């Protein structure tokens, strides 16, 4: 599926604000930035603002994380939204590529599992010829698709409990039993 226009993303964020009202101010700020962008620029790696998406996937009481190869920190499996994707597709694809496991939409979640959105400042990466930029990161709660065979992972992954996770991610554990 493809993002048709900025209004698609803004509506997705408005739906998130309806069931997560504490995110309203952050969502308004991000929506304003999106309003100033062309849809094609959001998937252009030379642009100052990129769309990205992260997967929040639990196994028992633990969440999957990866060690980011460039930033050298523990993060959710995530990546850039490609030209013909919506952020949800990206979260599913990146989870599989980075961990080797498969995930799918959690039918019990509202708004196709969107639980958060963040603006993340990304430093320059000369290896990828990318200048410093901002990611607008859509974060989705997904579930493991245990019917599919595990593949080789691109990155080292970790299963962490809420107490082991970085502060930024602790709030996502409230979705553990949703």
Descriptive labels:
178 residues; alpha+beta; Nucleoside Triphosphate Pyrophosphohydrolase; eight-stranded mixed sheet; 4 helices; 24% helix
Walk me through what this model shows.
With 178 residues, the protein is an alpha+beta fold. The chain has one domain: Nucleoside Triphosphate Pyrophosphohydrolase. The chain has helices at 6-19, 24-35, 87-99, 167-170, and strands spanning 49-59, 62-67, 74-75, 78-80, 103-105, 114-122, 133-144, 157-160. Strands 1, 2, 3, 4, 5, 6, 7 and 8 form an eight-stranded mixed beta sheet that branches. Strand 2 (62-67) and strand 3 (74-75) form a beta hairpin. The chain is globular and about 40 Å long. Residues 48-178 form the Nudix hydrolase domain.
CATH architecture: Alpha-Beta Complex
CATH homology-level superfamily? Nucleoside Triphosphate Pyrophosphohydrolase
Largest sheet, in brief, is:
8 strands, mixed
Poorly predicted tracts of residues: none
Shape: globular
What percent of the residues sit in helical stretches (DSSP H or I)?
A: 10-25%
Number of strands: 8
CATH C-level: Alpha Beta
């Amino acid at each position: 599926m493809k993002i048709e226009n900025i209004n698609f993303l803004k509506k997705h964020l408005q739906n998130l604000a309806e069931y997560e009202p504490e995110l309203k101010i952050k969502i308004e700020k991000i929506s304003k930035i999106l309003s100033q962008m062309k849809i094609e620029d959001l998937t252009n790696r030379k642009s100052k603002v990129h769309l990205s998406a992260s997967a929040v996937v639990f196994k028992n009481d633990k969440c999957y994380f990866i060690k980011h190869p460039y930033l050298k920190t523990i993060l959710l499996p995530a990546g850039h939204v490609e030209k013909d994707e919506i952020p949800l597709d990206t979260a599913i694809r990146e989870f599989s590529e980075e961990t080797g496991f498969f995930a799918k939409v959690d039918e019990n979640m509202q708004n196709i599992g969107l639980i958060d959105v963040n603006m993340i400042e990304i430093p320059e990466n000369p290896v990828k010829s990318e200048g410093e930029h901002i990611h607008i990161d859509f974060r989705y709660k997904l579930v493991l698709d245990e019917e599919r065979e595990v593949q080789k992972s691109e990155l080292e992954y970790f299963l962490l409990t809420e107490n082991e996770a970085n502060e930024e991610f602790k709030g996502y554990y409230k979705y553990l039993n949703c």
